[in-house]
Amino acid sequence: MTAKKPLSTILVSEQVPAHLARSVIEEKLRSAILDGRLPAGTAVRQQELATLFGVSRMPVREALRQLEAQGLLKVVMHKGAVVAPLVDEDAAETYDLRLLLETEALRQSIPNLTDAHLAEARYCIDQLDTETNPAELGRLNRLFHMALYAGANNRKLLRMIEQELNQEERFLRFHLSSMGLGKPTQEDHIALVDAIQDRNVELAIDILQQHLANASHTIRHYLETRASA
Known about the structure:
Elements (H helix, E strand, L loop, with lengths): L20 H14 L11 H8 L3 H13 L3 E4 L3 E4 L7 H19 L5 H16 L3 H15 L6 H21 L11 H11 L3 H28 L1
Antiparallel strand pairs: 1-2
Helix pairs in contact: 1-3, 2-3, 4-7, 4-9, 5-6, 5-8, 6-7, 8-9
Protein name: GntR family transcriptional regulator
GO molecular function, one term: DNA binding
Pfam family, one: FCD
């Protein structure tokens, strides 16, 4: 359902430095889309955002392009940019695609990962272990995985992975509390980082494959149960 509220009632008006405008606007919109303040179908108008943030339309246009590339916005004829739909039935297929993309990214990344990357991943694990907010769980899970793929040479591959992780993050924000999973276990995440630390590429890929396969099975079961209810 399209939101009836204007963007100015959802996003906080603020003046931003010109050199930071695109990144600030992109992050503000991204957060509002992911946490549901901007529901699917909401029109996101360039001029309204430019006025709201006190900038020209150019950084707004660039921010919207980035969000479109991430799968969070889509362009509709005669309407412009709108928040993309949350297509629940694609959630399981997202994991199938992630399996293909992320194993290749991990293979490329491991030789180039630094101690800083691994420290970032372990920090995410620590936060995931104590976090209970579904919105924050989704964000931390995305950051964890992207930290492990940061060493991959193929930038297009990383953009594709981040787009799929964005879709997963939106799905989890809206459904995690009703899935009855309880506190997420970090065993796979810890084992994955340990294998990477040891530069054991094949073991790391095996762990990642099993991790994503288990997640896919859980999502499919949830969707099937919900459909038959």
